[in-house]
Design a protein that fits this description.
The protein contains 5 helices and no strands. With 126 residues, the protein is mostly helical.
Length: 126
């Protein structure tokens, strides 16, 4: 397996973050999700843009606020809606992976590409 095809098939940290962001965006656009729940990710992004020290005693990293906001949002959404959107994201990713994978051809172990022969070294000096 080549390094390029390996990066397309193995899930990584950034791919997981991307999938999670797609899930949050899809849930934000779904009318079956309560409007008040949608305030969680919005509030996280607002905190990122306008950082205020809500709790000056405890320093909170912006990444932790984004993670917590998205985590609570997904956990509090109806699980059937979350599962529906998650399955759609995975299906879309599988279609993309299938299109990105080159078609299988005969490899070097196939006898169709092997030419049997002998060679002789010829001296070019007269």
């Amino acid at each position: 397996m080549t390094e390029k095809s390996r990066s397309l098939t193995l899930p990584g940290v950034f791919q997981s973050i991307g999938d999670r962001a797609r899930l949050v965006l899809r849930l934000m656009g779904d009318s079956r999700v309560n409007f008040l729940l949608k305030l969680l990710p919005i509030g996280s992004v607002v905190y990122l843009v306008i950082p205020t020290d809500i709790l000056p005693i405890i320093p909170v990293d912006d990444a932790a606020v984004l993670w917590l906001g998205s985590y609570l949002f997904v956990e509090m959404c109806p699980q059937d809606v979350v599962q529906e959107h998650w399955d759609a994201i995975q299906r879309a990713k599988n279609v993309f992976d299938a299109e990105a994978t080159p078609p299988k051809t005969a490899g070097p172990s196939s006898t169709a590409d092997v030419v049997d022969g002998e060679f002789t070294e010829v001296d070019s000096k007269p």
